[in-house]
Amino acid sequence: MSADDKYPAESGRRRFVKGVVGGAALAGVGATGAVSMNTLTTASGAGGGPVEAMVIENTAGPAPRGMPQIPIEIDDEGYIKGVWPEIQTETVEGVEIEVARQDIAGVTYSQEWFQYCGLESNNALDPSYESDNYFVTDPGGGYEWQSDKSEGDRFYVSEFDDYQEWNSEAGIGSAGIGKAGSAVWRSGESENPMPVTILRSETIEQAAQNNDWLAASTDQGVIAWLNKCTHFCCVPSFKTASDAPKYDAANKVYCACHQSVYDPFSITSAIYISRPRPE
Ligand code: FES
Q1: Contacts of 8 (CB under 8 A, 6+ apart)
Q2: Residues within a 6 A CB radius of ligand 1
Q3: Is residue 36 pLDDT above 50, yes or no?
């Protein structure tokens, strides 16, 4: 982690609430809203710069913004994968660089959404890094229900079929708001893997019916995000940390390092400065 990853608190965020589904404890799922600009970090290198990303909203704590959503698709066999944007070549300051970027439901989705916390130097964010893009089991651990999976196993949508009843083994918060899985993405043997949380929930399923972005970036109620705290790069948790309820995070994503809280049922947009990839 570098000091350059310290951003001041964001302000002026707004979101459009699309309605509450699945219980009063949950925030409505928000859609696009112009939000805030964090302090510039300048550095040489390929790519980087201002980017607008769809994020799970940061609702409390020192984190400067939400964590970026990863659009997903479910293949014909039922396995869940992250969408990697199409590769394009563009010229920046006279130098041709490759960028993975594409339009999804009017939103510009790009690799730059994930360029923070040192991940910008990860092979995974080389636009042309070869990966099948499936989410696979996290060698660092996962939820109890994942214990019969082997390292590198994919996630099958039916493994989340009990999403309307599930609660974590820690029993934090309400059962039935959604079932989570802990995964990595495009990481191979990397020492700095891309941690991902997969969540299947009725709230997302319902919200996607009235929201073009969610309809295009989720499927069967499955949503995913890069689970890397935008404060100091810890890996937060969903419904497993015993002190989460103290911070109004029993049904949210909680970072135990400095008590940042994120709401996976509120998707907003955030503008920030993505860090350049090393040349
Ligand atoms: S709140 Fe500081 S790293 Fe997450």
Answers
A1: 38, 39, 64
A2: 61-63, 229, 231-232, 234, 255, 257-258, 260
A3: no
Q: Which two tokens mark 255? A: 């970072």
Q: Which amino acid, 157? A: V
Q: If DSSP codes are grouped into helix, strand and coil, which group holds residue 216?
A: helix
Residue 234: is its pLDDT beyond 90? yes
d(C-alpha 277, C-alpha 126), whole Å: 8
With CA atoms as reference, report the closest residue to 228 among 258, 197, 274, 249.
Answer: 197
Q: Ligand 1 mean position to 166 CA, how many Å?
A: 27
* Segments of the chain assigned E as strands: 16-17, 30-31, 49-60, 67-68, 72-74, 80-82, 87-92, 95-104, 107-110, 136-137, 179-185, 194-200, 222-226, 237-238, 253-255, 260-274
The pTM (predicted TM-score) of the whole model is 0.85
What is the CB-side half-sphere exposure of residue 3 using CA atoms within 13 A? 0
**What's the 224 CA to ligand 1 centre distance in angstroms?**
19
Q: How many CB atoms lie within 10 A of CB 7?
A: 21
Return the residue matching tokens 């994919």: 154
Compute the distance between CA of residue 84 and CA of residue 101 in angstroms, rounded to an integer. 8
